[in-house]
Amino acid sequence: LDEPFKGMDQKLKQSIYPALRNAGRQALVILVTHDPGEIQQLCEKVLLASGPPLQLQMISAEEHAIWHAQE
Question: 46: closest CA among 31, 35, 66?
């Protein structure tokens, strides 16, 4: 899902979060977002992409929250 919540108000986002969390328990869901709040609400693991050249790093959502706070 590429920026699925862009342009939505907070109330609508919150109403969709449970369904997306449930889907993530049953299958792999790839969520592209720049919103750290969405990451904290929805994700257990985070794949950070940077580059070029392309570099990927898998971290936990908790590690992401700490990393983002230090940014």
Answer: 31
